[in-house]
Design a protein that fits this description.
heterodimer; A: alpha/beta; D-Maltodextrin-Binding Protein, domain 2; 2 domains; 9-stranded mixed β-sheet; two-stranded antiparallel ribbon; 19 helices; 11 strands; B: alpha+beta; 14 helices; 8% strand
Chain lengths: 425, 446
């Protein structure tokens, strides 16, 4: 007994003398499914800075884990009882890990820290790490969805690019005008819009599909019905023709929603995929529904702290450095084609310089203030584990409505019941 | 201390319960560890996390902690077995230790198995002597068992569920695993109930035994009281007896000394009267002897009064004393007295010597007083065949037709009986006293 105790005490004191190793978990590559050269330099920079500020502390991470394996890799770590102190969390894992109690609620750490100011972040980006009334992660990168516009096509049709605050009606009008049969085979081969779904329309029309806790849903609201009707009307313009990515790449589609990350990737050297060099293009905000606003969906890459970490204070310091240090955020901005979570960085001349460095002339230089505005007015997807599946379930049903032309309100009541029973399960 | 059957039964029941708890707790933790390993090896970690409520930190640590807790509980049980009956304070602390360690083990297993608490309470029940504490302990036991039950805890807290780990396996294995798990849980309950029954039955028996002993003690007390009363009666009687005996002894002493001396003097005076005409010289001589005898008689009386013990014997050894007495009597009474002794050294215990001396003295007195004998034969010898001392005094006096036990003969009989001897009297032309005395021969006497 005494010997065991002695061993334990020596073990403890031995631990005390050794340097503290902070485990950081990250994946290689971009969170936004675009190709990037290297995701480690900004992290290495952050680690160098952190270790300088905290002598005796070392930050360690495993490199080379692709995003596709990351979720399994992190889950294994958790099951093995080796949850990293600080970790990037995929959107698909965030709510599950929070429910499992694996993530530390940061409110307490934030409250204790006088140097922490949450107003430096975009509120929308912070919201992505909020769940069940707690802040379980801080955003490291954020990406809004924008409307990609084929300027060449609109010019050909003598249609001006929609102005700020354009509406569903404006969009419909343009789409109706551009949908044409160019080769005279009786089938339209130029289209208005591609990849615009009822989900984007619902956000733009101010529909709230789920309650914040994910306990209830509302699929019978006026806003949603309006959004679905609007998308259906857009579909109907295509006269049953399926619009494809190829049509868009060939410059025969006027509009397509696109993430900011894709936008930056495709317009930035050296990763420019010269897909879109046959036409000139631009990005604008999403259209505004009659009951809503020009609202985009905003996604964020979350970084959290393990609830089982034994170095929570240090983990918090590192997390803060990664997410709120302007220098690090600028480095992140350089290497990953997302927007910074700090308005100060996104709107800074340095960020503009990064963009203009690779400006190729096919697209206008992205205005940081415009991006900031889109992010600020954007909305995050609800945070609960069944969200993705619930939306997929509803999507399948709504696609059937488009095809079968049934009574919308009745069909939506049915969907309401099905989705409600699904999320309660 | 020797273990009673009840203790052995209690310990056996506890040991069984401990075995069941140990196997269940350790195999639950081991199962979680093995299953985690399986999940990892099949790359199903994320899928598994999608189906559960909580994961234990490190499943191997869970196994280690649970095993350690169970070993600690076992050690504390052994300690109590060794202490059995002693060190109540230590037993109390060890039971408290058990409660804390048991609770830790239950918490480490995320309340999937709280049978360990049953083990702790079975132990407490064994050691609680005060019956009024039973309801409290039972209450605390039931409450803590209920509120650490998985179903209740999982409502209020995030806990991992062993069922989630069982669901990892194929459906046929699942059935088997659920079967084993339920069996172990039920076995724990059954063992606990069995254990309680054994403890309660043994306590009852202990109580009955105690009551029985109390009853026996009461009876013994009553008997003792009675015996005490009887004893004090006997003591009183004894005191009276001693008094009576002492009176008898005094009477005997007076009779022995005074009677003997006076008899001798009377015989001497008779002789003087007979001689006074013929030989004044002899009379003078005789009177001198008488004077001496009477002085000796006075001394005897004094001595009897003081010590109630024969003087001659005190000063002289038995043989000399007898010879002196014989000479004196010959001179005083003119009777021829022969004394023969075949025992080389006449040296016995004081009471024996006194009895022999008195018996001879009494017999001579009787022979002179009642038999008017002219010859007296005294013989002391030891017979090889029975090892007793044979004393015989006979005379050639007139004897008597019918032996009437007077004071003298009765005293001879009493004295001989005091030494567990036998005495017989015969009168066939003269009088004969025959006595057998079982002398306590010492080695030095042979």
């Amino acid at each position: 007994m005494a010997a065991l105790l002695l061993l334990f005490v020596t073990g403890l004191s031995g631990c005390g003398k050794r340097e503290v190793v902070l485990e950081f978990a990250m994946f290689n590559g971009s969170n936004w499914d675009v190709a990037i050269q290297d995701s480690y330099p900004p992290i290495d920079e952050a680690i160098r800075k952190f270790e300088q500020q905290h002598p005796g502390v070392r930050v360690h991470y495993d490199s080379g884990i692709p995003k596709s394996d990351y979720s399994e890799w992190l889950s294994r770590k958790m099951l093995e009882g080796e949850t990293p102190d600080v970790m990037m969390i995929l959107d698909s894992d965030f709510s599950r890990f929070t429910e499992l109690g694996m993530l530390e609620d940061l409110e307490e750490l934030a409250a204790k820290d006088p140097t922490f100011d949450e107003s430096v972040y975009y509120e929308t980006a912070l919201a992505a790490g909020r769940m069940q009334g707690g802040q379980y992660a801080l955003p490291m990168e954020t990406v809004p969805y924008l409307m990609f516009v084929n300027k060449t096509l609109l010019n050909q049709e003598n249609i001006p690019i929609p102005q700020e605050g354009y509406t569903f009606a404006d969009l419909y009008d343009i789409c109706r005008k551009v949908t044409k049969d160019l080769d005279g085979d009786g089938i339209p081969d130029q289209f208005g819009i591609y990849k615009y779904t009822w989900v984007e329309a619902a956000y733009a029309n101010g529909a709230e599909l789920f309650s914040e806790d994910g306990e209830s849903c509302d699929f019978t609201s006026r806003e949603l019905l309006g959004a679905i009707r609007f998308v259906k009307s857009l579909e109907e313009l295509n006269q049953n023709q399926k619009v494809t990515q190829e049509d868009f790449d060939n410059g025969r589609v006027a509009f397509m929603p696109l993430s900011f990350a894709e936008y930056r990737t495709y317009q930035t050297y050296p990763y420019k995929i010269k897909k879109y060099d046959s036409f000139q293009w631009d990005c604008i905000a999403m259209p505004k529904g009659p009951l809503g606003d020009n609202v985009s969906i905003v996604d964020s890459l979350n970084v959290g702290i393990s609830a089982r970490s034994s170095h929570k204070e240090l983990a918090w310091e590192f997390l803060k450095l990664l997410t709120s240090d302007p220098e690090i955020q600028t480095a992140v901005y350089q290497y990953d084609p997302a927007a910074s979570v700090l308005p100060a960085v996104t709107e800074s001349p340095e960020a503009s310089a990064v963009m203009s460095e690779s400006f190729q002339g096919t697209a206008p230089m992205m205005d940081g203030v415009f991006i900031s505005q889109v992010i600020r007015s954007g909305k995050v997807k609800p945070k609960f584990a069944a969200y993705q599946e619930a939306v997929q379930l509803a999507d399948g049903e709504i696609l059937r409505i488009y095809d079968e032309d049934t009574d919308l309100e009745n069909a939506m009541r049915l969907i309401q019941r099905r989705v409600q029973s699904f999320i309660q399960r | 201390m020797k273990k009673t059957i009840a203790e052995k039964q209690n310990n056996l029941a506890l040991l069984l319960l401990y075995g069941v708890c140990f196997v269940t707790a350790v195999s639950a933790a081991g199962f979680i560890w093995i299953t985690t390993d399986r999940i990892l090896s099949q790359y199903e970690a994320r899928e598994f996390l999608g189906t559960i409520d909580r994961i234990p930190g490190d499943s191997f640590h869970v196994l280690l902690w649970v095993s350690a807790c169970m070993v600690f509980l076992g050690m504390s049980f052994l300690l109590r077995l060794r202490l059995k009956g002693r060190g109540e304070r230590l037993i109390f602390w060890s039971l408290l230790f058990d409660f804390i360690v048991g609770f830790c083990a239950v918490a480490v297993l995320d309340f999937n198995y709280n049978g360990i608490l049953l083990w702790v309470f079975a132990n407490i029940l064994v050691y609680v002597r005060k019956n009024r504490l039973w309801p409290i302990i039972t209450g605390v036991g039931i409450l803590s068992y209920t509120f650490t039950g998985f179903e209740l805890i999982s409502i209020r807290m995030r806990v991992f569920d062993i069922a989630d780990y069982i669901h990892v396996y194929g459906s046929s294995t699942q059935m088997y695993l659920f079967g084993v798990w339920n069996f172990l849980e039920i076995l724990t309950l059954v063992s606990f109930i069995g254990c309680c029954l054994v403890i309660i039955v043994n306590k009852e028996e202990e109580l009955e035994k105690t009551n029985e002993l109390y009853a026996q003690l009461a009876v013994a007390n009553e008997n003792l009281k009675q015996a005490n009363e009887e004893l004090s009666d006997i003591m009183e009687e004894n005191a009276k007896m001693v008094q009576v005996r002492e009176r008898n002894r005094i009477a005997r002493e007076i009779h022995d000394t005074m009677g003997h001396t006076l008899t001798g003097i009377a015989a001497g005076i008779d002789a003087c009267i007979a001689l006074s005409d013929s030989s004044p010289e002899l009379v003078k001589q005789q009177l001198r002897v008488l004077s001496e005898v009477s002085r000796k008689g006075i001394a005897d009386v004094r001595h009897s009064v003081n010590e109630l013990r024969p003087d001659a014997l005190e000063r002289l050894n038995l043989e000399t004393a007898i010879r002196q007495m014989v000479d004196n009597m010959q001179q005083v009474s003119g009777t021829e007295i022969s004394f023969s002794c075949s025992v080389p050294v006449l040296k016995f215990d004081e009471d024996e010597e006194a009895v022999i001396y008195r018996v001879i003295q009494e017999s001579i007195t009787n022979a002179l007083r009642h038999g008017h004998a002219s010859k007296i034969w005294i013989a002391i010898d030891r017979k090889e065949w029975d090892g007793k001392l044979h004393l015989s005094i006979s005379d050639n006096g007139c004897g008597c037709g019918e032996i009437k036990e007077g004071f003298g003969i009765r005293h001879i009989r009493e004295r001989i009986r005091m030494l567990n001897g036998k005495v017989s009297f015969a009168s066939d032309g003269g009088f004969r006293v025959e006595a057998e005395i079982p002398i306590r021969w010492g080695e030095e006497y042979d």
